[in-house]
Design a protein that fits this description.
Layout: E1 2-7, E2 13-19, E3 27-34, E4 39-43, H1 54-62, E5 70-77, H2 88-103, H3 110-120, H4 124-129, E6 133-137, E7 141-144, E8 151-156, H5 163-167, H6 195-201, H7 203-212, E9 219-220, E10 227-231, H8 234-244, E11 249-254
Helix pairs in contact: 1-2, 2-3, 6-7
The structure holds 4-diphosphocytidyl-2-C-methyl-D-erythritol (CDM) and adenosine-5'-triphosphate.
Domain GHMP kinase C-terminal: 172-249
Domain GHMP kinase N-terminal: 53-130
Family: Belongs to the GHMP kinase family. IspE subfamily.
Length: 255
């Protein structure tokens, strides 16, 4: 669910959103090398320049607090597609802040780390927690909560979506009412205000959405491009996975 409640004067949007942690993600390995000059190297990205990588930017934010300098080599096995609305970069940044805080003995507490996380992106503070949560504000108010258990089928349309494209769209509904507490776990109310914009702007995604309807109720993750469906039982989930495999890459997870 992603409800857009308002647009703030700084352009950011006030949200109410359910964030579910998935048992799947990028793998990151950190190796240290003795040195009095702290720095990081990153491998696992083909085209992204070092300084554009959110992992590098996370490391830079910690530099003023380093008490035990060393060089850290970070190896990333990227599994989450880029621009998928699954928080690939944001989760990399959160893992980097937490791990370097320990390796460099920065000794920042959870509150200080969350403040640094928010500088990197609105959903980085969520990924610091490692727990599913109701997220409000622009992403900084996080209340741990579970919403769903069962099977989630992720569908990956073959195109990335830049978050800004959706948030800057003139057609985006920006005056949604927040869902009351008692309805938060009712999946019938899990609308995503970004879905109409994504379906109108990206014809390939609209086509995929229509191919699966009415067999599956597809939902949008964040600002896309990932679509997903929820199932209570494994047999139905596997049947639908077989059906969508003819259209796009996908992954079935039990949560
Ligand atoms: C909406 C979500 O995609 C839900 O998963 C996330 O909250 C976005 O989080 P994120 O990728 O960490 O976002 P940021 O890197 O901070 O922002 C990217 C762009 O999205 C827009 N943005 C983001 C979050 C937010 N609450 N309001 C916004 O308007 C802004 O235009 C911003 O320039
Ligand atoms: N470590 C990283 N992993 C992935 N993308 C990164 C990384 N660092 C910088 N980027 C840039 O961030 C952009 C958004 O990528 P990302 O995969 O985080 O999108 P997303 O999952 O839609 O993000 P979110 O859901 O947090 O809005 C990419 O186009 C890429 O250039």
């Amino acid at each position: 669910m992603l409800r857009i409640l308002a647009q703030r004067s700084d352009g950011y949007h006030a949200l109410q959103s359910c964030f579910e942690v998935l048992p799947w993600g990028d793998e990151m390995t950190f190796f240290t090398e003795k040195s009095q000059q702290p720095s990081v190297t990153i491998c696992g990205f083909k085209t992204l320049a070092l300084t554009d990588n959110i992992i590098y930017r996370a490391a830079e934010l910690l530099k003023p607090f380093i008490q035990a300098p060393c060089v850290v080599h970070i190896k990333v096995n990227k599994k989450i597609p880029s621009g998928a609305g699954l928080g690939g970069g944001s989760s990399n940044a959160a893992a980097t802040l937490k791990t370097l805080n320990t390796l460099w003995k920065c000794r920042l507490d959870a509150t200080s780390l969350s403040a640094l996380a928010l500088k990197l992106g609105a959903d980085v503070p969520f990924f610091m927690t490692g727990q599913s949560a109701l997220v409000t504000g622009i992403g900084e108010h996080i209340r741990p909560m579970r919403f769903f258990s069962g099977y989630i089928l992720l569908l990956f349309p073959p195109l990335p979506i830049a978050t800004e494209t959706v948030f800057n769209h003139p057609g985006l509904k920006r005056n949604q009412t927040p869902l009351p507490e008692r309805l938060l776990r009712d999946s019938n109310f899990w609308i995503n205000d970004c879905l109409p914009v994504v379906l109108s702007e990206f014809k390939e995604i609209k086509k995929l959405f229509d191919c699966c309807y009415p067999a599956m109720r597809l939902r949008l993750s964040g600002t896309g491009s990932t679509l997903f469906a929820l199932f209570d039982d494994k047999q139905t989930a596997l049947k639908q996975q077989k059906m969508v495999s003819q259209y796009c890459r996908n992954r079935l997870l039990e949560i």
